[in-house]
Amino acid sequence: MTQRRLAVVASLPAPQPSDDNPPPRPSANSAPPPRELSLPQFGALTAITSLLLMGLGAMVMPGPAVASDLPTSLRGVAHWDAGWYTEIAVHGYWYHPGEQSPVAFWPLFPLTLMALVKLGVNRWVAGALASLTFGAFGAWVFSRWAKVLAPRVSNDATRLLLVFPFAVYLYGIIYSDGLFLTCVASAFLLLELDHPVLATLVGALATACRPVALAVVVGLLVRSIERRRTQVLPVRAVDLLPVFSLVGLACWMVFLDVRFGDPLAWIHVQGAPGWDQPPGWSSWLKLSFFQTMFPRVAPLVALRLGGHALTTLGALALVVPTFRRLGVGYGVYCLMVVGIPAISSKDFQSLGRYVIAGFPLFLTLALMLAETPYLRRRVIAASALVMAGCAFAFGAGGYVA
C-alpha cells in the first residue's frame, strides 16, 4: 500500500508557479558570478598593462639604460641582457676567455634579431617586437596544447601562465623566453597531434635557444614512447625521432668549436668576473645565496632572491602532481627544465623566469584549482598584482630576473 501511494504521488504533475505560489527569487545577498574577459581580451589587457607599467617605471626612475639611444618612455623593455642580445644582432659573437662574453647567450633569438636588423629595423625595436610576438604566439600555442590534454581547464591554465609574475618577460622585454616557449610548446603540441617529425624539427630549434636542451630532448622522447604505450601499441622507430632534437645543441657546439676552439665556451664563460657562477660545489650548494641572505641583507635583495627561491621550490613541488596528472613525459621534462637551472645557479637569481619554460606546471595548477573557483580567482588576481610590480621594477632598471 505504501509503495502504491508513493507511485501515485510521484505521478502527480509538479506545482506550477502562480500568484499564490510564486517561483523562488534569488536572495538579495546573492550576486551573479563575475563575467570574465575572453582569453584574447585577457591577454591583450595583460600585455598592454605590463608595457605601460614598464614605460612608467622608466620615466619615474630614469637610471642608466643599455638603450640610451631610445626615448626614456621606451627604455622599459631594454635593460640588462637586452644589451647582449642586441650586441650579437649587430656585431655577432666573440669570446674572450675569463671575461663576460656573448657566447653565454644561445643563438636562436639573437639570430632572429640579426635578420630583422639586416632588414633595416632598429635593433631595440626588433628585439621588442620579436619578444612581444613570440610571447603572444607562445601563449596561443600553450592554450592549444592545454586543450588537447585538458580542455575543461585550458583557459584557466592560460590565464595562470599570462599573469605569472615573471611572465612579464613575454611582453616585449628583449629576452628569449617567448621564443623558447613558442618552440618547446609547439614541439609538444605537434607530438600530441601525431606529427613526430615536425615535433623533432621544432624541438631542435628549442635546443638552439636555451641551455636546457637535454630537458627538451628527454621530455619529448619519454612522452613519445609513453603515448604509444598508453594506446597499447608497439613503439615504432619514428617514436624515437625526438632524440634528434639534439641537433640544435650540436650545431651550437660545433660553431663554438670551429670559431673559438671551445665547444663548451657557453659553460666556461659563466665563471667570468661579474657573473661568478662556475660549475662546482659552491654553486650547487647555493653558498652564495646563504652568504647573501644571512645574517642580514637589504630588504629588496631579500625580496628578490627569496622570491626566486620560493618560486623555484613551488615549481619543483608541482612536479609530483604533474607526473600523476599529465604523465611521466611531462613530469620528467618539468623536473629537468626547472631542476637543471636550480642546481647550476649559485643564488636562485633568474630562476623564477626559467619556470616559464616549465609550461606544463600551469596546466597542473589549473587542474588542482578546478574545484575551487573562488581560490582560482584569488590566485590569478594576486599573481597579476605581483606581475605588475615586476613590470614597473624592470622598467625602472631593477634586476628582476
Q: Brief overview, please?
A:
The protein is mostly helical.
Describe the model:
The protein is 61% helix and 0% strand. It is mainly α. The protein has a domain at 42-54 and 73-268 and 372-395. The longest helix is centred in the last third of the chain and has 28 residues, at 299-326. The radius of gyration is 25 Å and the shape is globular. Mean pLDDT is 89; it is low at 1-15 and 17-21.
Strand residue content: under 5%
> What is the H/E string?
HHHHHHHHHHHHHHHHHH
For the terminal residues, how far apart are their CA atoms? 77 Å
Q: What spatial form do the alpha-carbon principal axes imply?
A: globular
Structural class by SSE content: mainly alpha
Mean pLDDT: 89
- The portion of residues assigned to helices is 55-70%
Number of helices: 18
Low-confidence stretches: 1-15, 17-21
User: Largest sheet at a glance?
Assistant: none
What is the count of β-strands?
0
CA radius of gyration is 25 Å
Which features would summarize this protein structure in a list?
401 residues; mainly alpha; 61% helix; disordered N terminus
Fold topology:
Elements: H1 2-11, H2 39-60, H3 82-91, H4 108-118, H5 123-149, H6 154-162, H7 177-192, H8 196-207, H9 213-230, H10 247-260, H11 265-268, H12 281-284, H13 287-293, H14 299-326, H15 328-344, H16 351-354, H17 360-369, H18 373-395
